[in-house]
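Continuing the batch. This is chain 6 of the set; chains 1 through 5 are on the previous pages. Same settings as before, nothing changed between runs. Recording input and output for traceability.
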Amino acid sequence: MNKIEHVERVLAKDAVDYPPVSMWYHFGLQHGGGEAFARATLDYFNYYDYDFLKVMNDYFYPPPPDLMAVRTRADLERLTRFDVAGSAWQEQFKAIRIIAAELKGRAFFIDTVFDAWQCLNRNIAAENMQVLMENEPQALLAALDRVSDNLIDYCRTVLSMGAAGIFLSMPAGSEILSREQFLSFVKPFAEKVLAVIQPLAIMNTLHVHGKDLFFHECLDLPAHIFNWWDRGPSGPCLEWVRERIPGCVMGGIDQTLVARRTRAFLTDHVREAMRLGGNRRFLLANGCTIDAWVYPGALQTIVTTARTGSEKIGH
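Output for chain 6:
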């Protein structure tokens, strides 16, 4: 069974001897071109021999020219529709083309997209987001809607290039924003993007980001796979989510430990993850990005343990 068939069996809800495994971190190459990023990504994938690839996306949402910060209603109105092919994202598109050609027939890959709220919060509005949510809610909602339309264009583009799905990161933790803010400014726009792309792919993954999560409010969102920090202090656990969604769960690895524990510890950690995940509808991965300075032997241990070092898993 090759890597594509392995993932397909999990998506079809069939039993497998071990879960498909992958890990990811930020390469820090957003200052460079797509070709260099593609080479680094493929080198990383091939070195660790993962079963599927999550492509990172560190090219930020393109701000309007000469707009240093979004602070006001007028600034929000400058966030308009644009041609994604001619934007700064063209470097990611270059990388996707190279990755798609290299992995065609070998392995599935999914591309990372940050939801509309994070697109603004990461670099365009940032420290002003709280004030905008409080003082300019209608203008912010309209801007988030336009940003989501641009994200849909982006997603359609990479899916047409051969991506098996989109990994949509969505903030949903009480330490990031309130439940009311999540329901107003995050969930509707994540749902808008997911609803459009759901029939266009087979591995659309919703990353529910945060620590103390509003998970009940996320369960009805359309995605083939859910990913979150299941091994964190607040969970929820893999089984709890799997019982409440029609698709698959992805996780089992505590990303905060991977670069800070011995290979012996990680061997036990992976075995425990596989017992928690079982042999159906489960992909083994980190709950969020791991540290880029991780010891290579740590990741090799995770992959090897998943494939050969575990007891027969059952559920």
